[in-house]
Structures are given as C-alpha cells and as structure tokens.
Amino acid sequence: MGITAGGVEALRxxxxxxWGAVRRGSVELLGGLKPPGELEREEYRAWVAEQLHALAExxxxxxxxxxxxxxxxxxxxxxVAFEVLGFGDLSLMVxxxxxxxxxxxxxxxxxxxxxxxRYLRAIMSLELPGCFAMTxxxxxSDVQHLRTTATYDPDTEEFVVDTPDPSARKDYIGNxxxxxRMAVVFAQLVTGGVTHGVHAxxxxxxxxxxxxxxxxxxxxxxxKAGLNGVDNGRLWFxxxxxxxxxxxxxxxxxxxxxxxxxxxxxxxxxxxxMLGTLVRGRISVAGGAGSATKKALALAVRYGETRRQFTRPxxxxxxxxxxxxxxxxxxxxxxxxxxxxxFAQEEMVSALHDVSDDRQQRELESRAAGLKAVATWHxxxxxxxxxxxxxxxxxxxxxxxAGLKADTDVFTxxxxxxxxxxxxxxxxxxxxxxxxxxxxxPWGMARFVADQAVNVVIERTAARAIIDxxxxxxxxxxxxxxxxxxxxxxxxxxxxEGLARRLRRASKEDAFDVFNAAQDHVLHxxxxxxxxxxxxxxxAAVDRCEDPEAAALLDQVCDLYALSTIxxxxxxxxxxxxxxxQRAKAVSxxxxxxxxxxxxxxxxxxxxxxxxxxxxxAPIAA
Amino acid sequence: MGITAGGVEALRxxxxxxWGAVRRGSVELLGGLKPPGELEREEYRAWVAEQLHALAExxxxxxxxxxxxxxxxxxxxxxVAFEVLGFGDLSLMVxxxxxxxxxxxxxxxxxxxxxxxRYLRAIMSLELPGCFAMTxxxxxSDVQHLRTTATYDPDTEEFVVDTPDPSARKDYIGNxxxxxRMAVVFAQLVTGGVTHGVHAxxxxxxxxxxxxxxxxxxxxxxxKAGLNGVDNGRLWFxxxxxxxxxxxxxxxxxxxxxxxxxxxxxxxxxxxxMLGTLVRGRISVAGGAGSATKKALALAVRYGETRRQFTRPxxxxxxxxxxxxxxxxxxxxxxxxxxxxxFAQEEMVSALHDVSDDRQQRELESRAAGLKAVATWHxxxxxxxxxxxxxxxxxxxxxxxAGLKADTDVFTxxxxxxxxxxxxxxxxxxxxxxxxxxxxxPWGMARFVADQAVNVVIERTAARAIIDxxxxxxxxxxxxxxxxxxxxxxxxxxxxEGLARRLRRASKEDAFDVFNAAQDHVLHxxxxxxxxxxxxxxxAAVDRCEDPEAAALLDQVCDLYALSTIxxxxxxxxxxxxxxxQRAKAVSxxxxxxxxxxxxxxxxxxxxxxxxxxxxxAPIAA
Lengths: 622, 622
What we know:
2 copies of one chain form a homodimer. Chain A is of the alpha+beta class. Chain A has 3 domains: about 5-125, Butyryl-Coa Dehydrogenase, subunit A, domain 1; about 130-270, Butyryl-CoA Dehydrogenase, subunit A, domain 2 (Beta Barrel); about 280-615, Up-down Bundle (Butyryl-CoA Dehydrogenase, subunit A, domain 3). Chain A has 22 helices and 13 strands. In chain A, strands 1, 2, 3, 5, 6 and 9 form a 6-stranded mixed sheet that branches. In chain A, strands 4-8-7 form a 3-stranded antiparallel sheet, with no helix packed on it. A two-stranded antiparallel ribbon of chain A has the order 10-11. The first copy, chain A, is globular, with a radius of gyration of 25 Å. Chain A starts with a helix and ends in a 15-residue tail after the last helix. The model of chain A has no long low-confidence stretch (mean pLDDT about 95). Chains A and B meet through β12, α9, α10, α11 and α12 of A and β12, α9, α10, α11 and α12 of B.
C-alpha cells in the first residue's frame, strides 16, 4: 500500500530542504546519543549538562557563530540543527538553546567586537555557561517595562545592577539554578539620573567554584510540569557592580563620564530593535515544536497501524484502529498541518538567513511571532491528540508521548506568550510593517490605522509566480489549489479590513476599550494571515519537489491541510457568504475522503521525517 | 464588585445540592489531610497508601456500602464523596476509587451474599487491598473479547485462571504493582468445554508477606505522565487455581459438577448487564474530573485577578489580565460549562441513587458514558487553558496546575475511551434504550434502526414542566432560555434523524463501512444529546435556587454556557439554516458581553466551589 522506499527517500529529501546536509549531520550526531531513561531531577540535570558537552564536541554550537571566532557563520543551519534536537531529549534541546541560542546569541547580537573576542569561544566550548535573564515575575510579556536597574556610577566606571522589588526578580531563567556562571541581564539603564530604557549587561552570577557571587541571590524554580533536566531559577541582584565594559553596547553605550549614546533614537524603537535581533530564539522554538509534533505523530501512527480493537463482522477480523474514520480524523489532518508548518518553518529559516533590510527584518519578526504561536499550539493540541489516540499506553512514560506532552507544554508561553505574539502579528499587518509596532499603544495604533487605506492588499510571500498562475486559472472545485488559496486570501483580507474599520473609530479616550473589545477579532486576523502564509509555503514546496511520486503525495497532503483548515473555520466562511451550507458540508466530506486516501500513506509520511530510531524506542512503536 | 458573602454561601448551597451534608463532611475530611509536596515515586506511593488509611478511618468508604456490613447504603453519597477527593491529591482519589469503587464495587455488584459477608468489611477497612483486573493489553475498549480464561475443573471444583498469550496480560491495573492482595479478574468462563462469556473471578495475587502468589506474575507499569502515587501494574496468570466459590456469581454460576446457569440469557446481554452494574465508576470519574477542573479554574481566576500586564495609557496603570477580553474568553465560558456539568453530574448521581427499572438503568448507563466523555474532555481542555492563562507560573509544580494536568490526562481514556463511549451514547439514542446495545454489531444496529421510526422525539430529562413552559412561551431573543433550549433540542433531533437515515441504508455486506463512514456523524449526534441534557440540568438548577441573588447570577452563567456552546458549533447551525449569518455573529457578540458582565463575579463563582484552602496553597493563589 505504501510508496516505494525510494519514494520515502524522495519525500525525505523534499523535507530536508536547503539545509539538508546540516539536517542529516545533526540527525547523525543526535542518533549517537542515548536516551536518559528515568532519572531523578538532579541526576537528570547532570545528564543534560554532560550531553551538552557531547553536542559541543560534535560541533553543534559552531554552526551559527561567526567564522572569525571559530564558528561556521551559518545562521539558518544553526536553527535547523536546533530543530533536529527536538527529536531527542527536549531538556537537552532547551538547555542547548539557552546556552548557545539565547545567551550566546545575545552576546553576539547585542555585544560588540570586544565581547565577541572575549566570550564567544568560551560560550561555544561551554567553558562559560550562561543565562538569558530577561523575564521578571511581574513582567513576562511586557518586557519593555522590566524593573531591574543598571545604574552607571562614573566614579568607579561601573554599572550597579539592582532588583528594586520582589516582582522584579528574574524568573524561570534557564541555566540559573545549577550551571550558569554569567547572565545577560536585561535592565533599565540609568545614567546621570536619566533612564534610557532596557539594555543588556553581563553579570557574573557564580564564581569558579559554583558559589553565587556577592550580592547575587539564586533560587531554584523547583519541579516543573516538564523539562526537568533544565535548571530554571530565579535571580535577585543587590547592588551588584560590574565594569562598564560589561554593557552589551551595540545599540546603546555609556562613555566613561556617563554620557549615553545610541545609533537608534527613541527608547521604544531601540528596545524593539534589540529584541528583533533575538528573533532566532522564537524561530528555533517553532522548529523544536515541529520536531516534537512529528515524533508524537510517528509514535501514534505506528501504534495505530498495529493496534486492533473490535471485530469487523463481515470478515471476523479485529480492525486496525487507524482504519476507523474517527482515528484518521484525529491524526491525519494534524499530520498534514505538520507538513505544512514544516515547509513554512523552512521558508522562515531561509528568510532569517537572507534578511538584508529593515523592512524584511520587521516582516521576519512578525512571521516568527505568528508561526511560533501557531506551531506551538499545534504541537500542544497534536501531542495531546496522539496521547489519547494511544489510549492507556500513551499515558505510560515508556511510550514517550507523556514526556513530549509535558516538555512542550511551556512552548506556548516561553519566547513570547502566544496570545501576545498574535497581537503583534496583527499590529504588523495593520501598519504594513512600516516601523516597529511593539511600542505603539492602542491610540497610536488607531491613529496609524486611520492614516492608512483600509483596503488591504494581500502580498504573496512565497512562490508568487506559481500562486498567481494557480489563482488566475482556478475553478471552484474544492481540490483546485487556486480555489483554496483564494479562500485563505479572501478571509485574511476581509478579517483585516473589518478590523481596521473597527479600530479607526477609536478616540484617544476609548482607544484601550475599543482595542480590548476587538481582541478576538485581532487574534482571528493574525491566525488567518499565518494560515495563508503557511499554505503558500506548502504550495511552493510541492512545486519544488522534483520526484513525481513524492510530489503527487505532497499534493494530496496539501489538499488535506487546506481543506481541514477551511473546515475548522467554516463558520466564518458561512457567516460571510463565502461558502454555502451545501458547499461547507462538501468540505467536510472532502476531508473524510482525503483521510481515507492518505491512510495507506500514513506510515510513509511519518517515516519521511527521518527521526533517529534511537529516539523512537518505545513498546508501542516496536 | 462581587456579591455579598451571604451570596457566595447561597451559591455554594445551590452547588452542594441533594448530598450537601456528605459534600461538606467530605470537604472537612479532605481539608484535614496535608498535600504531599514533592516525593519520589515509591515515597509517593507510600504516602498515598497511608492517606488511604486516613480516609478509611474518617469513614469515607462506609458511605456506599451496605448497612448490613457496616456501611451507610448511600450510593449517591459515595459518588459525591469521591468527587470531593478530586479537590485534593488525584493519586489518592484514584487509589480510593480502585479500592472501594472498582474492587469493592465489583464484589458488591457482581458477588452474592457469601462474598459480601466474607470480603466487604475487609475491603472497607483496607485489610484486603484489591485490584479490578479487566483491561488487557490487546483489549482495552472491546472488553467483551478479553482473552484471559477461567476454566472450571469439576475434579477439584476449582477455576483455572490463565493468560493464554502476551496480548491477554492484564494491563494498567491500579493497586497491582505494590499493594493489591486480591484481584477481581475478568475472564472468559469455560466449563464443560463451552465458553459462556466474560465473568469475574476473585484471584489472590499476593500472599500475606506481599510476595506474588504461585503462578501470578506481576510487573510494574513504571512511571506515567501523572498519577504516580498509584501503583499500576500488569498481571499474568499461569494456570492459577482458585476455589469455585471465588466466582462472583450473581449473573452466572457454575454448579459443583460444572453445570452453568444464569438468570440472563445471551452472552452479550449478560456481559453488558454485568458491566452496567459497574456504572458508578464512570460516574465517579466524571465527578472527579469536575473537581479537578474547578480547582484549575480557581487557581487561574485568582491569579488572573492579581497579575498585571501592560499599561493602560489613559490611566497609566498596569492592566489586570482578567480585564482583557481574550483572557475572559479563555476562562469564563469554561467556568460556565463547569457549572453546567456540575449540575448535570448532580442529576446523574440522583438518577443512579434512585434507579428502579431496566429502562432507567440503560438510560443511566448511556448518560454516564456521555457525561464522562464530555466532562473529562472539558477537564483536559480547561486545565490546559488554565495552565496557559497562568503563563510560566502555570508550568511550575508549586502552582498545582501542572499536576492537575498530568493527573487528569488519562481520565479521557480510563473507565472507557471517550470516543468509544460517545458511540455507545448514539447507539442508545438510536434504539431508544430498548435493550443493551453494547453487543449490537453494525448490521444489527442498521436493522434495528430500520425498524424504528426515524422521527426522533426529544424526551426532556429534567425539569420537564419548567422547560415546557420556557419553550412554549419563548421569543427569538438570544437570551431567552426557551430559544436556547429549542436550539439544543432541534440540533439533537436533526442530527440524530439524519444519522438514522444514513444507517438505515446499510446492507449486511456494507454495514461496517457505512457505520465507519458515519463515525463523525455518530460522535456529533452524541455530543448534541449530551449538550442538551446538560443544559436541561442547568435550567432545573436555576429554577431550584431559592436565593434571588444567587439565582440571578446562575441565570447569567447559564446564558454563557448555552450561547458559548451554540457558538462553538455555530457552523452546524449555519449549515442547517438555524442561524442566519447575522444572528451567528450576534451570538459571538453576546458571548463577549456575557464575559464582560460576569468578569466581576469570577472570583465569587470559583469561591462557591468550596475547595478547601489547604489544597489551594500555591504562590499564584496567595
């Protein structure tokens, strides 16, 4: 029933994409590690720390850092390598992300030559384990208003880092509770009595022996729902002094006499520029979520192909559960969406790698916010579905899905709360990415929207020529890709225009309330946009695929993604006269038929993910 | 903004219901126990076993057992007492359910006087810890086809209990890995070479010293996603001999010479009658899921009322997160549904307590299947939502939601897989509960449906007179309860009639395929039915509430439940011409408005659940 082994290989190559070599190399490196089994928390943390060294020795961290410091200058490749870690132990993935992506990435992106020279090699080699200390207990999403202060003292040419109140403690900080020696601390920079907004300062938090530095208080966050191999902690600073050179001064500097200077005017703009350079973290989380989702689906599909339940009376045989429509309905649209998100992720990684101007950068930031939200929610939902689809077996740790569920749960929260991120996406769309919008308040947004035409023009992001062709020649058949694309585009345009009209009506006095009352509308607009971008990426991938058998299969998977997405929001299409009741029912029927058609291919589709077997060792997957 | 303390108390009394005294007593007993904190698995199991004794000493198990053996004969009360345990440690709740509900319940329901005399006191006192060994690795849902055998040997007047193949091992059995001394083993009863279907046999599995009995192999299921205080295990029997008297012989007996007799004809009917007597377990799980949901909502609402994020520009103050529409949308419809399910649960417990004929019993079994499925899915979804609504704090174990999530996850699977249960509900509806339908195959169902009128008559289950009045005098206003009830009824009737028409077309040859192709339709019919039954229970509860302030509040909560349920399935109402696009949008708008109206009452609504503060001790709930 399945396609040929060569067919699976062609499918896998299509998934491997631009960073195929990095991907295969990373799979090999990961495949050489051994799953930890059941460990107590401290043992587990020790195991993760040890494996991190194995990754360092295997060259994993080199990929993304500058060649002049021993790296490979491959930004896109570094995200792909991180993504592959998502097939393995997720605590290890997150710990790697904290050390090299967040900590190392901040030093690289926010620091200057001196910092790079001094720290990057030690960061890559793990000689200097570090933390990314941004979140505070009272400010998780609204990081622009963090309360930690870094006050410049010209007499000693030092910054004094301080935690002014309990809500300003740094919280959930990875690498803080056990291993970190240094932290990139985000704090309000004050010099000469003037606050210049949030900046990043390097603060040593532990001495060579592992004891907290004077004035630094460290607390363990304790057990968590998952990711217990990562040592998250809390940090308090009591007037801790660090040299002036510890300021990561690419976007704002303080002269020895205390004079502040910055290449970017405006506190808000500066802060969001700094945040923007850290976009790789968000993109990485979306990729890691994708890998975990693939692994859960691989386990559920394998089990669904062998587990039998209830007898088919005409043959007397017990029925393989994946032959039930309800089981297909659970797994196959989720599998199709996982494919779609994979290609959207690949395209986003390319955009990150190639970004060359401000407008592209802002579009990338918006894309990263949107895809991170959609991909991590998809992960949470799909892994839950896979757990349930495997029944009691899915609840046992030995079958791996329980761990995937627990570990990925926080992905919807960290690197930006999904609900907040989708609002960023909508703001970007409403302002056509003209400028950083992170610091526009509701009234600022309302004025901005009022100044714009509310006639939204959908800009196709990928494969423009192909999509133009598909749309212009399209019929109204449900399986016509051009029709599908038109539905996605039309919905985005309509939802966005309606939103713009609502927001324009706001006055200075009621702007907050108008925005708040439209919050569900805002989230819907962002979702509709992300869905469209994802579909375009899938269309482009089908078009790129040179193997005819694999391309034909991808084409059907793309149909299932498109139609199940329309089905999920068909109330909107009905409410807005885009689907007649008859046609809406036909969409559901078409999803059922696609499930039946793809069911014999399910195993091939998960095999093509190329997950190393070492990390799929579970009784249900045998 | 909230109602008076007296108002909260009136609300709580309304929730307390018919078993108010049992409920308050159980809350007091539970409130006297202390949460375990973080424990290793074996320590945790020991803690749970110890607390079980505290519950026994507190009289918890007496409630449901017969007075003649020292119990209190209060079946309904026993379910309510179990439900209250859901506010505490869920491993303890489940372990109590295994010992007294499943093991003790099976001895009580399937055994006869001799068994009761011999075992019930020892079961209540924990002198005899036991297991309920039904599920096998290869047969989790299709328990009618279990493979374990109990073969009668007239020479020694013993049953020989045997595990014939690896897939027939008993799996996920609570109390098996550490504490159980005896198991109720479900097995195919064979005597004189003839199989009489599944029966239950008491098999000692450990001796007084705790070592496995000869021929019994026990394996630990190992770590699980949650409920790690419960010792789930696997059991294999190698020709284990037990005396003839160990057969729980209420529904099938074997004479010393091997002659089989039963008061019920037909293997299938007999088996489903036996299963039916165990309905209390399913009802209890629905109740426990409700308590866990309430606790998660209480935590999320308390945190949502204190946590602030982003500044409101017109006042300069940081906004309390529960003031955001998106946050209200996450928590308040879920809270309303939790109220609705509470009242439906209460009504179901009453039906269990008062059941007096076969038809009522079958209706109860169907109700239990449906509410168990809907309540446990609601729990999984709502607890997930609460976790996300609390951000990073929600991920820390100290804030309790992580544990609730992990522990309740399997509720959608155990005591019947939800998807299978909803199919049972639909079968019951299609056959008007005329007979046990568990063993009707698709072709049997098709013939049955063909013989019936396909003109479904909705039978109101609760508060018939009130609902008749509401419906007959109803306008078309969205907040008119009569209109809401009509929508629920109309949807159920239409979906069910359409389903009946589809299934009637099946022939003997294609019956399986016709049923399989309609599986999503089947599930939808069951959901629509359960939703209606739940709404009716809520309507009855509002009507019963004598305190005007509490009644007015409940009335609004009921509106939110009804309209958010219609909103969630509004695609169906649009597809079937029940809602115009304009009106569908008005439903969404009304949900938003109800969220705003109920937001100041959110804290009162969760306070009225009466969760003991000992079990709400978390930094986010301070």
